[in-house]
Amino acid sequence: MMTTAIIDTSTANIASVRYALERLDARYRLTETPDEAQDCDRIILPGVGAAGPAMKRLRETGWAKALQTDQRPLLGVCLGMQLLFEYSVESECELLGLIPGRIERLDPGAEGPWPHMGWNTLSQNSADEPLLAGVDEGAHVYFVHGFYAPVGAHTVASTQYGPEITAIARKGHVAGCQFHPERSAKTGAQILTNFIKGAA
Length: 200
Description:
The structure is a single chain. By secondary structure, the protein is an alpha/beta fold. The protein contains 5 helices and 14 strands. The chain has helices spanning 14-23, 51-61, 63-66, 79-82, 185-196, and strands at 3-7, 27-31, 42-45, 74-77, 87-88, 93-94, 102-105, 116-121, 123-124, 140-145, 147-148, 155-160, 164-171, 174-177. The radius of gyration is 15 Å and the shape is globular.
């Protein structure tokens, strides 16, 4: 059975990610440093909060440098997805740069309050995205975020809340979910199952 490393970013959704993997009977290890994840098969980067402090921790623990060359499947969740990009206007900081693009402040306009919080639908932009195997078009997932990745070349699923938002991004072995799969009921469980069972 494969083992998934969860990067310890000291943020609020680590516990919920762990519980979600436990519900799926998935083997995982909470890892503070890359050395602790050497024999793991894939990596989850969770995150809640601000980009600046999260990047500071990744640099201090060695993960920021390690992820530049690591070729194992990597899944960013919520802020963890945003950290995969190049730059964030939140904290005005450089990110990991694994996926091209900038993270912008979300302006929902008349669609609702800021931040984007609650259930919204997934519009699939790619017919062969492995994370979406078994997931219906228009399935609902749970979002909590005030910054976002605009839809671009690496968007494989999107949602609408004011502007069109990247809900799932991918570049090669690196993917991210802006929403919380660990809080997204059956759809989220399917996405996590797809990842831990081999969706690269």
